[in-house]
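In full, the data:

***
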Amino acid sequence: MFSTPKSLRLQIGLFGRTNVGKSSFLNYLAGQDVAVTSPVPGTTTDVVEKAMELLPIGPVTFLDTAGLDDQSELAERRLQKTAAALDRADVVVLLTEPNHWDEFEERMLADAAARKQPLLVVVNKTDLPSLGKPEPTFFQTLENCSGDLRSPDGGHRPPLQKISGWLECSCVDAARRERVVSRFKELLLKVCPDDYINPPALVGDLLPSNGLMVMVVPIDLQAPKGRLILPQVQAIRDALDSDAAALVVKEREYAALLGRLNRPPDLVVCDSQVVLKMVADTPRDVKCTTFSILFARFKGDLQELARGAAMIDRLRAGDRVLVAESCSHHALEDDIGRVKIPRWLRQYTGLDVQIEVSAGRDFPQDLTGYKLVVHCGSCMLTRREMLAHIQRARAQGVAITNYGLAISVTQGVLKRALSPFPAALDAYERMANG
């Protein structure tokens, strides 16, 4: 279970008002105390992640969040973390109480609708006589999502997306646990996103059966000792799953390796930092790209990121550029995001552009001050989370690209690096010439 990368798990977000029972429901599903619970409102103060195997669905990660109606001194910061968890969630689970549906539930329904996320409702605490049994009108409200509820200004709210399903639950009723868990799994299977059940190919569709992929992997200060990095391992596995073979070589031995092959490889993939040398050594009729560009398609929208790459040639002196890293790591002397990309951008444009860096999952909500976002390959993000970042930039009119595309532009080899992806190449050229 723990060998599955976090970013490849189905991400299930638990949301609801303070003390509605989100952590209790997580413990109920797990059958053990994996989250701290208490009658005191606000026990969960930050997003708590719990990885588990939820058969027959498979490996999942639950995101247990702070209450939507948090009124504590740190409420604003906690709710920002809750909003970030919403971006990550493949499935939204909204916990509420019998006959209790107000502006907090309405807001979550609207947020999920805007993101086109499936939303399940868990009506918790059905064992408490003080709350009463759920009334038929309450379930009718859940069914049609318009009901007789009124907006804060007194008018009827507009209809929103249909709720994908709901269940009743009492997290202290051990006798009904199996029934509740089975029902929850049934609902999850109905709403699992297609890109989780059938994720986009990483390299398999670029290789014929019995094909050959050559991976050019530099071993430098940033390479982990004794192992390969996650994108390289995933590319090897995807090639094997597609009945193809993978050869791994360092950039200095790449040209010699090609001379020893009895036929050209079907695809060459390299680390973005050595893309210039890789392209120079690769025969013109062999398709080639970078790991970061592969992940731009696997985790995001390659055509949109290719269009964003064209903005590099439109930068002006003083423009602000955001370099967005999705993982928190110790920056080394020649760090790719903090040192090399800023240097290459300034050298390529000849301009003194202002470059800022965001790290971890703190992707800014407000991007309007930036001319361009250069995002990492997102190997540690879910596809939904990366698509949310792209959508946020698009909605605010800010161009967005990624490391591999940006580096290939600055090295003058982007068209070559997009050779396996004609639609993305066309999107780039149209934007560059438009």
